[in-house]
Amino acid sequence: MSAFLARNRLIVLAYAGMLALLLVTALFSPGFLSVSNMRSTVVLAAFVGIVALGQTFVIIGGGIDLSVPWVLNSAAIIMALLCGGQDLPLVWVMPLLLAGGAFIGLINGIGVAQFGVPPIIMTLATNVILQGLILVLTGGSPTPSAPALIQFLSVGRLSGFPVIALIWLALTLVATLLLSKAAFGRHLYALGTSATVAEFSGVPTARTTILTYVISGLTAAFAGMLLTGYSGQAYLGMGDAYLFTSIAAVAIGGASILGGSGHYLGTVAGAMVLTILTGLLPALNLSSGALLIVYGAVILLTVSIGSETFAGLGGRLRRKEG
Amino acid sequence: MDLVTVNGLSKRYGGIVALSEATFSARAGEVHALLGENGAGKSTFIQILSGAVQHDGGSIVVDGQDYRPANPDAAQARGIAAVFQELSLIPDLSVEQNIWFRHEPRTWLGTVNRTQMRLKTLALLEKYNFPALRPDQELRRLTLAERQIVEIAKGLAKDPRILILDEATSALPAREAEWLLNLTRQLAAEGRLVIFISHRMAEVRAIADRLTIFRNGSTVAAHEADAVSDNEIVTQMIGRHLDRLYPERVSTATDRIALGVKGFSSGSRLSGVDFALREGEVLGVGGLQGHGQRELFQALFGATKASGSIELWGKPVSIGNPRQALTGKDGIALVPEDRRGQGLLLTKSVRENLTLSVIKRFTENGLLSRQKEAALVKEMVDFLRIKAGTPEQLAGTLSGGNQQKVIFGKMLLTQARVLLLYDPTRGVDVGTKGEIFQLMRDLAAKGYAILFHSSDMPELVHVADRVLVMRNGRIAATLEGVHISEEEILRAAMLETRAA
């Protein structure tokens, strides 16, 4: 047990932070811990969590995906346009858009792994290109409302549980299996720790890198469709907030932004922390400007905790006698 | 009058005692060797001297004054500089920028005075007769050996009264190592104290005036170099009598060809290499550094592109990347040159490192089996006698010899029976060296085929069944039997170089 704690100290810390934050928020706003409020907090956190799933894989592998805002936004808008408010087209629209998200991820991954484009540049470029394409496609006009089925997935309930929370739970299980129980996870941590050592150890580094971006494209597109259901329609700019939150959730969850460490279970706590914070701040009568400032401060705090462990590790490495 | 006197020095890390009750004394103008196995406490000792870590107990007196540096800068202010084997250089800076890093000559505006820096660099290189180095060359383009030389220049740039060299020769080819040995004599003649760590007895013999022996985290003895025999030194180092470093060479080679290479070329460094490595054979690869040995090993493993034909166990294969080399029993495995940069995930556990290349062997229905993995780890930890607290210990916290064993374990688990060993004993203590040589012979006897490069020529002479000598990217000679000697290797490596 203590070995587990030591190895996953940062993840445990993320959950401890989440609980502490819940208590503080409950002090300032007594109704916060009510069932209905917790339910809506989890629903909001689920969107962050789903986008951050792909981001977690990319970051553990040593990369970063800045294309999530417009992959998400593109999926949302194209879905709304193709479905025209009807449920039936979802049968082919949803697989099509998931494939589309995966395809954007494939392009990102190939650019990074095969052509050596730095991840920041590669994904920033795809993001801007998608933004342009969507502007050309819609001409900025409003889209039809979301199909009822999608609305059910994002705001509906099954025996009291929000459907999206169940979806999130299922995705968390899949992500955990991939990271902890599959060869892919081992390859991923090795790749993020040292691409050269991974290559010399026979790890399929290019394939692994590409796969992380494909997963990120998938989850961003999926989140875009769900988010359309939540807000009732798709609109330009709806993905923008998810660039920062997806990365922040991964960092708060204990992953090194340089790759090689972290876990999706940590990201789940990170997504919760960010969402609870947004619930806390109105209770404190803070402006949206102050909200951003606190957001930034939380990230700084977590990164400094992370770098403390990094320094500790450096000490341990220097201790190597000889 | 001693320049440095150390009494009862100790250092603990949590529950681990890295150094206890160490005593040491050295005079100005001498070369003082530190000997001991990895983990004996030498590194901790010099880290304290150089200000990288602070001691918990005991005292150090330098020049009659108490010495307790808070950091390497404070140590340098007292005239103590260290050259470590873990290289401290910045790949993106040039040679001269690295040498003068944070001590750059300034203009009156406070900016770096480039002209002055160039002049000072050239003067330094000239004064100590450095092997050819271009001051403006970007560091990342240099070989490991050249970087080591830059590291030495960086140490000397501080004009220290005490210079600490931590296995500085281990990354150097023969000629440059020779230069370094002469350099230490020159520094001592200038009245400096050189504290010198090496695992090569011949070097210590060649230059040391005195030596201090470490064992199990403490000092056990100090001697005048000419008053003690090699045998006594080794016995004191390992606390028992070591029969011999090199195992008996009984050829176990069969007629079956494990690895056949024809017309193998890669870039400008490797042009048309042909050889055959047989089952049960240890085939040495020697020659002067930079004549294609590194390229040969990397290209055979698929880490760099190459042309030509390769046959493994009689079957033609094409190896485009390491993954295609590590294909199980018929594959080919590499223990790479750069242990920390290519071989090990330093921040991951011994377990994760050992099994990284063989995840398939403990995957069932797509899921990893921790039990099966643990069995594989235990098999290698026991077989190679890897000294780690638990398999969860981070690889970066192991001693050099144990790190190398982990890399061997990782490669042996792949079950590849053609092994490429690139300088596997570099920076490894004498006890582990002996174990590695014995392991090579044992594996050969089991039918493994081993291609073995060493920067330490006696190792080739004493361990290999045959030696290929490389020159200008080709095989210049193949030495067998009584013809394997340092003289013959050097002759083949050098003579026609002059002709060409």
Q: Outline of this structure?
A:
The complex is a heterodimer of chains A (322) and B (500). Chain A contains 14 helices and two strands, in the order αααααααββααααααα.
**What is the terminal-to-terminal distance of chain B?**
54 Å
Number of domain units of chain A: 1
What is the averaged pLDDT score of chain A?
88
- What Rg of chain B is obtained from the alpha carbons, in whole angstroms? 24 Å
Task: Tell me the strand percentage band of chain B.
Answer: 25-35%
Q: Estimate nothing, just give the exact number of structural domains of chain B.
A: 2
Derived structural class of chain B: alpha/beta
CATH class group of the largest domain in chain B: Alpha Beta
Shape of chain A: globular
**Count of helical regions of chain B:** 17
Under CATH, the topology of the largest domain in chain B is which? Rossmann fold
Unreliable sequence segments of chain B: none
Oligomeric state as shown? heterodimer
Q: How many strands, which pairing sense, and closed or not: the largest β-sheet of chain B?
A: 6 strands, mixed
Which structural class do the helices and strands of chain A define?
A: mainly alpha
Q: Main β-sheet of chain A, in a few words?
A: 2 strands, antiparallel
Report strand order across the widest sheet of chain B: 6-7-8-3-9-10
Strand segment tally of chain B: 22
Name of the CATH first level of chain A: Mainly Alpha
Record the SSE blueprint.
The complex is a heterodimer of chains A (322) and B (500).
Chain A: H1 2-7, H2 9-28, H3 35-60, H4 68-83, H5 90-113, H6 119-138, H7 148-155, E1 157-158, E2 161-162, H8 163-181, H9 183-193, H10 195-200, H11 205-231, H12 241-252, H13 264-283, H14 288-318
Antiparallel strand pairs in A: 1-2
Helix pairs in contact in A: 2-13, 3-8, 3-11, 3-12, 3-13, 4-5, 4-6, 4-11, 5-6, 5-11, 7-11, 8-9, 12-13, 13-14
Chain B: E1 4-13, E2 16-26, E3 31-35, H1 42-49, E4 57-62, E5 65-66, H2 72-77, E6 80-83, H3 95-99, H4 114-127, H5 144-156, E7 162-166, H6 174-189, E8 193-197, H7 201-207, E9 210-215, E10 218-224, H8 230-238, E11 257-266, E12 270-278, E13 282-286, H9 293-300, E14 307-312, E15 315-317, H10 322-325, E16 332-335, H11 339-343, H12 350-355, E17 363-364, E18 367-368, H13 370-384, H14 400-413, E19 418-422, H15 430-445, E20 449-453, H16 457-463, E21 466-471, E22 474-480, H17 486-499
Parallel strand pairs in B: 3-8, 3-9, 6-7, 7-8, 13-20, 13-21, 16-19, 19-20
Antiparallel strand pairs in B: 1-2, 1-4, 4-5, 9-10, 11-12, 11-14, 14-15, 17-18, 21-22
